[in-house]
Amino acid sequence: MSFDQAFVTLATNDNYAKGAMVLARSLRNHHTTSKLVVLTGPQVSDPCQSVLKKLFDEVRVVDVLDSKDTAHLAMMKRPDLGVTFTKLHCWTLTHYSKCVFMDADTLVVSNIDDLFEREELSAAPDPGWPDCFNTGVFVFQPSMATYEKLMQYSAEHGSFDGGDQGVLNGFFSSWATTDISKHLPFIYNLSSIALYTYLPAFKQYGGNAKVVHFLGQMKPWSLTFDPKAQKVRGGSQDAVASHSSFLLDWWTLYSREVLPLLQEHYGDQPFHSGCVEEEECQEASAAASEASRLSSEERRERWERGQADYMGEDSFENIQKKLDAFLK
Ligand code: UDP
Ligand code: GLC
Ligand code: MN
């Protein structure tokens, strides 16, 4: 066990806490020898806090920082992301010499302990703007001095996207041009959006993924899962389940290794497990499909904003069907 290095994540509410739990299991299943740390806020319920304590070596309750930058967040259509400023607390974990931050919506599919050989600030390109790094996975060195400089920087300059990614790219502004060893290969932070923007590359290299990032508004936990049929449903179409094996990986891990712990800690209290029987699933998915049917104009706009419905209307199969029809 490497006591001076840690994987760190953040969960300010119960939904993201579920993501953090799955992430922790995925790291352990791939035999990490590092510590696991989760930063949480007071909004996380007691049963979820207890499960986090079982799965992480350290659960640290921090002040939730919010950029409250509604103007910039509106540009991303993600008003909820102001609280990602809370991520900056990770620099205060000075009892570790090196850490890797991972969003709670990431899933590890292969051992990534080699990341600790990298220096601050190492990260993979953002799929939307590759001269920026994506802050879903990054290597950093905890330091109070850096933390204070970051706080000062964000107070003076704010964030161009209203979230942590805007601040961190402003602060570590030489990332794009100075040191290639700080560019993590994309397979360390593979966002499903890659499937749209460069489908042949996804087919060629997607199988080498080490970390999958469910970036965007729709998260695995906002869908439903039928454990008997082993199918994920919801979103706008049933294509959800069929094409995304990563989504199925997430739900399989959640239902086998996290749900039993949640059930144990919730006891008789009701909670939303996300797992439903076939019929309930179909009802849920029909309702979701009706609610989210968008005009093609709206869909194109969303795609251009990086919010493609990659599980549904814009699924791999649907895109391929359209391409085939077009080529004919
Ligand atoms: N996060 C959180 N609570 C929130 C929103 C975000 O704890 O209400 C954390 C969580 O770790 C999440 C990260 O901040 O993974 C970044 O947000 P998200 O993954 O939703 O952004 P995206 O990657 O989709 O841009
Ligand atoms: C991004 C990143 C996420 C970050 C958010 C806000 O899309 O994936 O990690 O928190 O922007 O800056
Ligand atoms: Mn994310």
UniProtKB/TrEMBL annotation:
The role this protein plays is: Glycogenin participates in the glycogen biosynthetic process along with glycogen synthase and glycogen branching enzyme. It catalyzes the formation of a short alpha (1,4)-glucosyl chain covalently attached via a glucose 1-O-tyrosyl linkage to internal tyrosine residues and these chains act as primers for the elongation reaction catalyzed by glycogen synthase.
Which GO biological process categories is it annotated with? glycogen biosynthetic process
Q: Name one GO cellular component term.
A: nucleus
Gene this protein is translated from: GYG1
- Name-wise, this protein is glycogenin glucosyltransferase
Asked if the keyword Repressor belongs to this entry, the reply reads no
The record's listing under Pfam families reads: Glyco_transf_8
Q: Which organism is it from?
A: Gadus morhua
Q: Which UniProt keywords apply?
A: Glycogen biosynthesis
